[in-house]
Amino acid sequence: MERVDCVIAGAGVVGLAIARGLAAQGFDTLILEAADAIGTETSSRNSEVIHAGIYYPQGSLKARLCVAGREMLYRYCAERSIPHRRCGKLIVATDDAQEPVLANIRANAAACGVDDLRFLSAAEAHALEPALHCTAALLSPSTGIIDSHALMLALIGDAEESGALLSLNTPIVSGRIEADRIVLHTTSTGSGEDFEIATSRLVNAAGLGAVALAGSITGFDRRFLPGLRYAKGNYFSVATRAPFSHLIYPVPEPGGLGVHLTLDLGGTARFGPDVEWTDALDYRVDPARGTRFYAEIRKYWPELADGSLQPAYSGIRPKLSSPGEANSDFVIQDTGTHGIAGLVNLFGIESPGLTSSLAIAEHVTRILLEHR
């Protein structure tokens, strides 16, 4: 049976960043990806925003890893010429009752180490964005946008340069814990051939499939499996160029950050995501959901014309919280939690997972170096 130092389950942005970090430390690293390409699910079906780290509870993994990861990501983009732009974001109150929420957001951000938010009056916000309607706003200059596909290509390039191998179309069917190793049963969806591989270290970065993968490993205590919910986010776009140069976010809503306006690097505006709880991995966008988008967008962009929204794409967030509950933190389980040496499970890696990817990788690499 072939044996490698490390197996990374999942070639999304987080799995690739971890593979890069482990391979750079000299570990013989194999990345197993069920799909036929890297980053086909959550990593490429999002807003492509570099988040500042504003909304998360103080001391949480999301807060710490987002703030650290943001700066690591900006440096990495500059070093590797990955397309990105620090365009800034406006968080807007669209009526007087929402203005106290802005103060709470700013206080929480400061507690998490984000100290560059600035209050803007309606007139100051309008001077930056003449088409914007609001009663007040917060300016976040550290927020940006990125080409997530270029980022993932850079990460896999670095990982492979350090000796990592990528195997696509290779889902992990099951696994078992043995005395000094983890044995994985995998299959090739191309050839249909099954094989087993042993490793001392398994990083479960399978995203939407991470809970199912952990549950398929004989010897893993199911008490440590969190509940997983799928929160689908639908995006709509406009055919014409939107008159904004900053990202525009309303105050947050339960389950997400509201129907916000983001820009891609070509200046095209995208609106979303909304929150649609689902049990299926179905990425089709129902055009009828656009009806609600008009009302939400017009709160901050009243001039949005009838009939201008068109379905764009959707993504699904791996939520560990249910509707009506507070958003859960990232869960990064190691032997201190489940008792299995060399196994690291990453559960609920939703937003700000892309922003945090390099910091998550550093965190996981540190855990596994201790297991060396």
SSE layout and pairings?
Elements (H helix, E strand, L loop, with lengths): L1 E8 L3 H12 L4 E4 L16 E2 L10 H20 L3 E2 L3 E5 L5 H13 L6 E4 H7 L7 E5 L3 E3 L1 H14 L3 E3 L4 E6 L4 E6 L6 E11 L5 H6 L1 E2 L10 E10 L8 E4 L9 E4 L5 E4 L3 E3 L11 H8 L11 E11 L11 E3 L1 H4 L4 E5 L5 H18 L2
Parallel strand pairs: 1-2, 1-12, 2-9, 5-15, 10-13, 12-21
Antiparallel strand pairs: 3-8, 4-8, 5-7, 6-7, 10-11, 11-12, 14-17, 14-18, 14-19, 16-17, 20-21
Helix pairs in contact: 1-5, 1-9, 2-9
Question: Helix tally?
Answer: 9
Q: Report the uncertain regions.
A: none
Average pLDDT over all residues: 95
CATH topology of the largest domain: FAD/NAD(P)-binding domain
What is the H/E string?
Answer: EHEEHEEHEHEEHEEEEHEEEEEEHEEHEH
Approximate strand percentage = 25-35%
From the 3D coordinates, which CATH architecture of the largest domain would you assign?
3-Layer(bba) Sandwich
Radius of gyration: 21 Å
Distance between the termini: 21 Å
Q: For this structure, what is the CATH class of the largest domain?
A: Alpha Beta
Content-based structural category: alpha/beta
For the sheet with most strands, the description reads:
9 strands, mixed
Q: CATH homologous superfamily name of the largest domain? A: FAD/NAD(P)-binding domain
Please, how many domains? 2
Helix content: 25-40%
Number of strands: 21
What is the overall silhouette? elongated
